[in-house]
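fyi for ur records
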Amino acid sequence: MTPRWQPSAPIENLRQRSEILWKIREFFRHRGICEVQTPVVGSNTVTDLNIESVHLADGNFLQTSPEYFLKRLLAAGMPSCYQLGPVFREGEAGRWHNPEFTMLEWYRLGFNTSELRQEVKELVELVLGPCNVSEYTFRDFLFDEFQQDCFDQTDEELHKVAQTNGYKADDGRSDVLDFLYSLAISRGSDSRYFVLDFPAESSALAQVFEHDGHRVADRFELIVEGLEIANGYNELRDPIELENRMENDQKLRQQLDRLRVEKDNRLLAAVEGGLPQCSGVAVGLDRLVALAIGAEKIQQVLSFAHDQI
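which gave:
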């Protein structure tokens, strides 16, 4: 039998995708933001427990994001910059996931997260058209859905709320909050909104500050039509705190019998050398394109999806 050789996406979808890419590059060119290219293979990768990297036979990793390389460029004096290209994540396949996908990631020197959210809003409107964009803190977002204050509740109380809503596992607080957050997104009525001020344990590489007596991450996500489109934050610039977070990730990975990921000493040295104040954001480009052209899954905007390679 002749193997299926045709592309995953209709040619017209790929043509429209090309037009959107041109618009995005023009968007950044008019703002004087420099496009860069960094390696897709690196000797290190992220320690984040929520992300699994593709580990190559030679010991290197396919990059899950250009974040580490871009921060090294910024520390070396690169102005505000962006990268638009492929990234890879182990085991991520489904209607809105593909192990290889296109990420748009950019960093703005001197921007706070409010300024960056405005720029994200403008970029998304360029692609999808104008729409009212709401903003919720993580705390208020979950309270509106479950009438519970996720910051003041004990772990046991949070588990009870989650179990009432179908949660079966016996995981830690962070996993329970992730479940409730995902559930709240699936039930949300707004078509486009930001969620900000995440719990400190979900800070990733964002700076943390105190708000209303609680430590929160200076981080945001943009949700469009029930899909996470963008994840951004005010970048952590303390090399000691960065190393502590990496070491904590390593301990948790060991406890969970997950792939051990070594600290990226080049990134740590770059941050110690002086990462300038900046905010950065990553956008799932395939999802954004799919929403723009009315596709029902990202495979309809990929030239060759995972099952076609």
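The longest helix spans residues 11-30. thats all i got for now
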